[in-house]
Design a protein that fits this description.
Length: 299
């Protein structure tokens, strides 16, 4: 198969964005006939139909939409390259691409990433959030430099990665003063029959909380499970139920959500890991994160 003709791809991209050959011709300073011929040649080489006509406009086909998504990536990357060449300050900026599993507390993630923004040289932080498996996939193809997770590298994923323990914290139960007035403050016995909010099943701490409740012989009412820890805290601040968060951010949780500590659970532990494709962490921003985590946040 012939190699990709990027000039043809660009013509296709602009026609798809403008919706007509005539509009694209004005933008490209070419005749409509020239663009039409180039598109026909491009479609013939690919062996697919790129457009269908709808009235006076062209509509991208399903196959064309898939090709268009690649074209968007290619030309946006090209634009970034040209911006980098033109802007000397950007040329000296170091990018740091981090994936943060949605099972990690936003408050902890923010504290962990703060040192990356305080290095001597300029750093552009690119932060992505999502499910751990998806983030690991991006790490494997070097779209990310590091992934922050609440568990080590999953063994079932066929990706070569290394887990670096950043730290661990016991958990604290929180509730509004009004809810505590209803259920009492004799922790953990006061949880019997009390409404509680749990992190979703994708959180490593989910099963640990359930095991702790069972071992403590308390039987609360689970009134909600959340895949977003910030949303769980927001519901907790409204008095919907007791919720759990790492003790290392207790002061922030109390200040931000207007709740109080109901009790600390020393044998209920949450861990935070940095996952990389390299055995040794070498990126300056990643080194700063690990240092801050081990000497300050989780010290």
């Amino acid at each position: 198969m012939a190699s990709l003709n990027f000039k043809h791809l660009r013509y296709f991209w602009i026609v798809a964005k403008t919706g007509s050959i005539a509009s694209a011709a004005v933008q490209l300073h070419l005749t409509p006939q020239s663009i039409s011929g180039q598109l026909t040649e491009f479609a013939d080489v690919l062996g697919v139909e790129l457009f269908r006509r709808v009235g006076r406009n062209l509509e991208v086909t399903d196959t064309g939409r898939r090709i268009l998504s690649y074209a968007e990536d290619i030309f946006s990357t090209g634009d970034e390259l040209m911006e980098l060449v033109r802007d000397k300050t950007l040329a000296t900026t170091m990018s740091f691409r981090v994936g943060c599993a949605d099972s990690v507390s936003k408050l902890i993630a923010c504290r962990l990433l703060a040192p990356a923004m305080q290095l001597g040289e300029p750093v552009k932080l690119i932060c992505r959030e999502g499910r751990l498996a998806s983030l690991i996939a991006d790490l494997a193809i070097h779209r990310l430099d590091l992934v922050i997770a609440d568990r080590p590298m999953p063994s079932h994923l066929s990706v070569r990665g290394y887990s670096h323990l950043l730290g661990e914290s016991c958990m604290t139960a929180f509730a509004t003063p009004e809810l505590i007035a209803q259920i009492g403050s004799n922790f953990p016995a006061c949880l019997n029959g009390a409404p509680i909010l749990l992190p979703g099943e994708d959180f490593a701490i989910h099963q640990r909380i359930l095991h702790w409740l069972e071992k403590s012989e308390v039987h609360p009412r689970v009134v909600g499970e959340f895949d977003d820890s910030a949303m769980m805290k927001a519901f907790g601040s409204s008095g919907a139920g007791v919720f759990f968060a790492p003790a290392v951010i207790a002061a922030q949780v109390i200040a931000q959500y207007g709740v109080v500590s109901l009790g600390q659970i020393d044998n209920l532990i949450e861990q935070v890991y940095a996952i990389t494709t390299a055995r040794r962490i070498s990126h300056p921003a990643a080194v700063a994160i690990c240092t801050m985590a081990r000497t300050t946040i989780f010290a």
